[in-house]
Design brief:
The chain contains nine helices and 14 strands. It has 354 residues and is α/β, with parallel strands linked by helices. Helix 4 links the parallel strand 4 and strand 5. It catalyses: D-xylose + NADP(+) = D-xylono-1,5-lactone + NADPH + H(+).
Length: 354
């Protein structure tokens, strides 16, 4: 039998998302497919990094650095997790790649598709593994749903998908330096939460991903405040089938717990959970009243970030530089669609002009 891989992680960024990921990495799980070791933490200041380690993993003793560069250079670190704001992802990735580190980088992977291509080209040249951390794609719920939709055709021919991700972030009360308001930091609902609505549309409307998937026609509208999209609405139209995705995101209102609906010729599936990024169940409602409804529940310890982490560890052990669920071409496809939505509606970042 192949031994369970062990990955020594270097954590870059000490915000909320890094906190949640680290907690999940060290959870004891009977079905764990990898061993995850928090080897080092890189932060903008030593005191901030030490405070993060004390509050998040007080029973562990990772090496804490007062800079990102020291974490990249640590020979005991196998993989760098990047949990910084979107605008820093490109440089963080390129610096880690220069040190020969494997990488798991938070979504949105970069600010635009051009930056993503630059990062992937560098990773290819160096021969390191890198993946966008779109964790929802790795949930057993998502894997089961795709099988039922595309292989077993539980709802027949797929007709429409509705998906929404809304959070009340009280943006108006934030200062101009906030990543939610500062365009130079990638502000806006689309890259922050709309990427999840887009992901649900893409995965439920087409069985294929990356360069094998049909290219949909995109129509979009954004509500801008000082150039930042507060609310986004976009349609995906698949010319070959007429399937449509009606997808939305906002930073002003919290989504309903039933955040997605998938309609087909034989029935409808309703997806529920505390957030669009973290589904917990879905219900199949058949058109045929003689057929019973069916609920699919998916319990898990923690939040579920370890699903993608295990996948990364197994890829690295096997010598792969890409993951089949979230390959580089899929990240570029998603970034290109979001670029199109932003450019069409005038939601530009300073980096877009570079």
């Amino acid at each position: 039998m192949t031994s369970v891989p062990t990955i020594r992680w270097g954590i870059i960024g000490t915000g909320w998302i890094s906190t949640e990921v680290v907690k999940d990495l060290i959870l004891e799980r009977p079905d764990a497919k990898a061993v995850h070791v928090i080897q080092a933490i890189g932060c903008s200041s030593l005191s901030k990094g030490q405070a993060f380690a004390k509050s998040t993993i007080p029973h562990l003793s990772p090496t804490v650095y007062g800079s990102y560069a020291e974490c990249y250079a640590d020979p005991k670190v196998d993989l760098i997790y990047i949990g910084t704001p979107h605008a820093f992802h490109k440089d963080n990735c390129l610096e880690a790649i220069q040190h020969g580190k494997h990488i798991l980088c938070e979504k949105a992977f970069t600010l635009n598709a051009r930056e993503a291509r630059e990062v992937f080209a560098a990773a290819k040249a160096k021969g390191v593994f890198i993946m966008e951390a779109m964790w929802t794609r790795f949930f057993p719920l998502m894997q089961t749903l795709q099988r039922l939709l595309h292989d077993e055709k539980i709802i027949g021919d797929i007709l429409r998908v509705f998906a929404d991700f809304g959070l009340n972030m009280d943006v108006k009360s934030l200062g101009p330096e906030s990543r939610l308001k500062n365009k130079a930091l990638g502000a806006g609902s689309l890259l922050d939460v709309g990427i999840y609505s887009l992901t649900w549309g893409l995965l439920c409307l087409d069985r294929n991903i990356a360069d094998k998937a049909e290219k949909p026609k995109v129509v979009s509208l954004l509500s801008l405040e000082e150039g930042v999209d507060m609310t986004s609405s976009f349609l995906l139209l698949y010319p070959s089938t007429g399937r449509q995705g009606i997808l939305t995101s906002t930073m002003s209102v919290k989504s309903d717990e039933t955040f997605a609906r998938i309609e087909g010729s034989k029935g409808t599936i309703f997806v529920e959970g505390p957030g669009t990024s973290i589904p917990s169940r879905f219900k199949y409602v058949p058109n045929n009243k003689d057929e019973k409804e069916k609920v699919f529940e998916f319990e898990k310890p923690g939040a579920g970030y370890y699903y993608e982490a295990d996948a990364v560890a197994m890829d690295i052990q096997a010598g792969r530089t890409e993951n089949a669920v979230m390959p580089w071409a899929e990240t570029i496809r998603v970034m290109e669609i979001m670029d199109d939505i932003r450019y069409t509606n005038g939601a530009l970042f300073p980096q877009d002009a570079e």
